[in-house]
Design a protein that fits this description.
By secondary structure, the protein is an alpha/beta fold. The protein is built from ten helices and eleven strands. The strands form three sheets. A seven-stranded mixed β-sheet has the order 7-6-5-8-9-11-10, with helices on both faces. A two-stranded antiparallel ribbon has the order 1-2.
Amino acid sequence: MTFANDLVTVHFLACTSFRNMKWFQDDHSELKLGVKSDKCAIHPWTTHSIWSEDCQSEILQKTFYHVIAKKYPPSEKYRKSFLKELMNQVESSGEVCAEEIFTLYVDLLQFCEEKTTYKSYFLPMMEIYVTLKESTNMLSNGTTGLVTWTGSMVLSEWCLTNRKLFDNKHILELGSGCGLLGLVLSKSFEMKSFTFTDVHPDVLEQLRANVHLNGLCQGKHSVKYFNWQERTPDEEKPDIILAADVVFDPLIVPDLARTIANLLCNNTSAVAFIASTIRNESTYQMFLSQLDSNKLNYFEQEQSKSSEVFFFDRKWDVRILKISMS
């Protein structure tokens, strides 16, 4: 298959929000969801007119019947929403909606809502997918670590753009959650090792499952319990420390800053890259103050050259800090 032309597949497998989704794309224009299309127009990956019944069938082949979707399907909720949006697009164009779409939609109405879903994120540089099992709820069992957050996507894109920093390095991630960042890097770089860490038992269980699901070897990749309130292990001496969206609770910020400082003390030539989605400026400023208290240097990193790999709402203010010993 030609990945570059299968944009609808990429969106569907990643459960992309419809406001950030494009149904079609070619070299000259983008036909966005919610914009009526010329029903006689021809899309590059199909010989059929847009929204015709043949085109609808081809969309289903590239989504519901895709080999990854069959093995690791998006949630029933997302699939129902996808079909509903597809029906709206077809009807607004003046075409007739294919019976197959109605049949799939009715079949899905019989299912109860799931607590988990699969999301498969496409890495265009490698032409591979990273598949994660995630919760369908932002908060599950008292933790937010069972879903992928914006900061992980932003830091992943930045790391992919600055890949020379990570080749042949020992890397440790704090608060790995579902594991998107570590899985993206592990499938994209030649590194010495990658250590995923978290503290919640449910998160660790799902994290191990996602590492296994993506076929990462156990010797080079490990999943460990790491409590920032406990003593930082002396044996942890990474070259690079990563973390995304871990600066959100003022109560844990001092422990986080101290943990980063301790890891940097274990290897004084190491550096940390921490991505933070700014939801509360005062909490972020508290984090910077704690870095000062631990005598750490920090500099905000340029993101303008980062490649856009994922599809998400980019209105959020996400800042990436490089942190090192003074």
